Structure formats: C-alpha cells, structure tokens
C-alpha cells in the first residue's frame, strides 16, 4: 500500500501518509518471509489476491473503455527475488521465480453476478459514482468486471509447458455444490479433502479483521463473509442469465446511465469469462 500503490482509489499523498516507507519490495519481503515460516511447519501456504492488485497500470489501462485518470502518474515498481524480477511473459509485478513456484487457482463467476455485487458494495461503502470521482469509479468498475487479468495469469502459466499448471474453479458451481467442487480441486492439488477442508466456522469479529480499512468499507465488502458460519449454498445459480433483464434491475437500483455502462462492461467481459470457463474443473 505505500507510495508505489497502483490502485486509483486513494491518492499518492494518502498512501504516503498512511504507509510512508512501505514499498512493494518491503511488502513482498514480508509475504515471502511469512510463506517460509508456514512451509517450515510442514504446512502448505495459501494466498488469495485479485490479479489486478499485483499488475502495473500499463497493463490495467490497455484496451480499456475507462482508463485510470492517474495511470500516467504511477511508476512501475520493481520487485527482486533471487536476482530476478518480472519478465515480459509475466503479467504481474511479482518476480518470475516467486510467481511460478505457486499453483494458481483461478476463480470465475458470471460477470453479470460479479459486477452488481461490486457496485452495491461500493455504494454501501460511500464510494459511488459522483462528480470528480466518476472517472475513478468507472475505472474501478471495469477493472472488477473483467476477467482479462485472470486470463493473463492463466496463459502465463500455460506458456512453454510450465509447471505447475493453472486450475480454474467456476464460482457459481462452487456455491451450488461446494463439497463436490472442493473434492475435485483437492484431487488436482494432492490434498486430502476429507481431512483438511471445513465447511463451517465461527463468525469473525469484523473490527479485528482488515484493520487498515474503514468500518464502512469492511462492512460493505466483508460483512457477509465475517458474519457467516458456513458455506452459503445457492441452488438457483444454474438458471440462465439474461443481461437485458439484469440491466432493467440495475436501472431501477442505480439509474439508466450506470445500468447502460454496466451492461456494456458485462458484455465485454464475457469473452474472457467463457474462455476460462471451458477449463473449469
């Protein structure tokens, strides 16, 4: 998060004030150290991140309808690990020797389900589309709607017969039948699903998680997860989605202009979504 942070949601000054010395290299070193500590116990580390958070602005602004308003103001940070950095075939900021030591698990959902969920959370957190912030808001919408970032990571692992191979999970199937999907995923990973996977848990104390985020932001994006006590199964996700019908619902909730923009972004995202879905377990 420091002054090198690639997100458009906060200004450089805000990041500098909150994390004055935290560079990408500093954060990478912390993550790498944590992974080494986990592996030293004989456990398998699991990391979750949205791919666009570890990609440079030059990538995020390519072929976009709503490019970042401050994309040309952000320099690409360099992260080094064992003398290497990110090569041309690596779409992320992470060094090759680090990134390609992982087995990537890509989770996808229908864009018409992803985008309204994101918009609803943004509005709940007080970050909706208005005035001078509209350009940033639309950039964030497009970034969240697209599966281009997941596809870039997927294809980078498939180059030159590189191992390990990427795995794709259909999030809609996961929400319909979590046990079956997790069993297939664990088989691919060589993990005993019966012994290691839990489907119930104690609700988390939201104030104790993501301490760097505001209360409104945590409630908007993590409220359902933190309040849950188990996997929320939805048996209705196999119903076909008609984007035109969804647009009418979006217009009722957020107005015609935003609904039209959302419809366009969903349609644009379908190509990468369908490409990845054909590889889903």
Q: How does the SSE layout of this entry go?
A:
Blueprint: H1 12-18, H2 24-40, H3 57-60, H4 96-99, E1 105-108, H5 111-124, H6 134-145, H7 148-157, E2 167-170, H8 171-176, H9 178-189, H10 193-196, H11 215-227, H12 243-254, H13 256-277
Parallel strand pairs: 1-2
Helix pairs in contact: 5-11, 5-13, 7-13, 12-13
Written description of the protein model:
The chain has 281 residues and is an all-alpha fold. The protein is 49% helix and 3% strand. It has 13 helices and two strands; from the N terminus they run ααααβαααβαααααα. The protein has helices at 12-18, 24-40, 57-60, 96-99, 111-124, 134-145, 148-157, 171-176, 178-189, 193-196, 215-227, 243-254, 256-277; strands at 105-108, 167-170. Strands 1-2 form a two-stranded parallel sheet. Helix 5 (111-124) crosses helix 11 (215-227), helix 5 (111-124) crosses helix 13 and helix 7 runs parallel beside helix 13 (256-277). The longest helix is centred in the C-terminal third of the chain and has 22 residues, at 256-277. It is globular and about 55 Å long. The protein starts with 11 loop residues before the first helix and ends with a helix. 23% of the residues are buried. Residues 7-20 have a biased composition (Basic and acidic residues). Residues 1-21 are annotated as: Disordered.
């Amino acid at each position: 998060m420091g002054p090198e942070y690639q997100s458009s949601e906060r200004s450089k000054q805000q990041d500098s004030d909150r994390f004055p010395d935290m560079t990408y290299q500093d954060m990478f070193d912390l993550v790498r150290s944590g992974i080494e500590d986990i592996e030293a116990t004989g456990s398998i580390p699991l990391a979750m991140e949205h791919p666009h958070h570890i990609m440079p602005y030059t990538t995020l602004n390519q072929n976009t309808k709503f490019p970042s308003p401050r994309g040309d103001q952000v320099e690409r940070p360099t992260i080094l690990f064992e003398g290497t950095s990110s090569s041309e075939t690596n779409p992320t900021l992470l060094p090759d020797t680090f990134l390609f030591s992982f087995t990537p698990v890509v989770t996808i959902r229908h864009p018409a389900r992803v985008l309204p969920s994101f918009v609803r959370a943004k509005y709940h957190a007080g970050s909706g589309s208005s005035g001078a912030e509209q350009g940033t808001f639309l950039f964030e919408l497009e970034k969240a709607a697209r599966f281009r970032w997941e596809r870039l990571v997927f294809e980078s692992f498939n180059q030159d017969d590189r191992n390990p191979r990427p795995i794709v999970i259909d999030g809609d199937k996961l929400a319909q039948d979590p046990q079956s999907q997790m069993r297939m995923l664990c088989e691919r990973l060589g993990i005993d699903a019966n012994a290691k996977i839990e489907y119930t848990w104690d609700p988390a104390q939201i104030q104790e998680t993501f301490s760097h985020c505001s209360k409104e932001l945590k409630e908007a994006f993590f409220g359902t997860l933190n309040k849950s006590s188990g996997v929320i199964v939805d048996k209705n996700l196999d119903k076909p989605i008609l984007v035109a019908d969804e647009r009418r619902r979006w217009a009722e909730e957020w107005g015609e202009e935003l609904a039209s923009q959302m419809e366009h972004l969903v349609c644009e995202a379908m190509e990468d979504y369908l490409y990845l879905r054909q590889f889903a377990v």
